[in-house]
Amino acid sequence: MTRKLINAIKEQSHPLNDQSLDKILEAIGNARIVMIGEASHGTSEFYTIRAELSKRLIEQKGFKVIAVEGDWPSVQAINRYVKGYEGEAQSAKGILVNSFNRWPTWMWANEEVEHFTEWLKEKNKSLAEKVGFYGIDLYSLYESIDEVLKFLSENPQYKVDLEHARKAFSCFEPYNRMPEHYALSTAHFTGECISEVSSLLKSLRSNEEQYSDEYEQDLNVIMNALVAKNAEAYYRAMMQDAKSWNTRDSHMVEAINELMKYHGEDTKIIIWEHNTHIGDASQTDMKDDGLINVGQIMREQYAMDNTFAIGFGTYEGTVIAADSWGDPLEVIDVPPSKLSTWEGQLHAAGADDKILLFNDENREVFNNWIGHRAIGVVYNPEYEAYGNYVPSRVGSRYDAFIFIDQTKALRPLKE
């Protein structure tokens, strides 16, 4: 298999340059949902190339929404900034440093995102319909609760929903704003909190036409309530790995669909997430554990013709990550991939940066099972062979793949 795959890569890959990025846009065609991945949360090139592709999708294909693997309240600060809701006194750097305070801060508070944020703010000044930038993750349980209560408290005309929200969120008060404490308590928890939070979201949705759309206040309250409902379910399922993973990715799909509904069903949306979220899980060994992900669900809901998934990979370099959860960030060396891996094969086909496009004619050539590197916010290179390679059928997992032979760590705005 090794020699055959290396030859196929040599024959069908394109050097990574402006022309090959144009080939990706051509392959995207009329797809309305473009999912752009990353093989780590700490690699500069993944961020900068993803931003460059997004700029082209905005300018050449009219994409209007970017949905990212970040928390709704924090990312809303970026959205307000790029749409001009925050006035001109702020800066992208200030917004990112002040809004991303929970570990791992470097995922969004970095120079690469700062540069794209400033570009998008400037670009939006020339657009009649401004491009939005939204977070679709669910770790912001308490921040989202605060946002819902603040909105309803400041709008007394929604008194019924305010009382409903106070009752629903009272369930979380004993846990000192620490979701992990809530997760540990759920073995002894009644169903009342679950039903109350779900009922609140239903009530808010039934009244959403009454909310002001100024600065997207109506969208903000609905999305924060959605986070609270699904975060509750996520933390309740934390001790069951497959179930909590699926709860999280299902939430992200629900959030994407809310954004599509809000902006119009024909809206074109860009999704920024890790490869493990946007690369179709049914084409990996994740399916053996009952895991699903955003990429798989979006393909199932919208069909292959309307979706396009772009994966990333690297052979070696440096990355920002930490030794364990909550530890200080470090610049960590990424060792060369073994020849038997997807990244090792790409390197063996030539130590240069390249892209591959997959379609019905060539997918099977790249569909033999092979380990594909995935680096998270916690990374221990010495154990890489045991947990950082996801067995995948790459040709069907993605629609395009971007390979950077040697990568460097992204640049955090704060340590």
Automatic annotation (TrEMBL):
KW Cell division (keyword) present: no
Keyword Iron-sulfur: no
UniProt KW keywords: Methyltransferase, Transferase
A biological process from GO: methylation
SUPFAM superfamilies: EreA/ChaN-like
Domain of life of the source: Bacteria
Cited InterPro entries: Emycin_Estase (IPR007815), Hydrolase/PRTase-associated (IPR052036), UCP036794_erythomycin (IPR014622)
A GO term, aspect molecular function: methyltransferase activity
Protein name: Protein-L-isoaspartate O-methyltransferase
Protein species of origin: Ureibacillus sinduriensis BLB-1 = JCM 15800
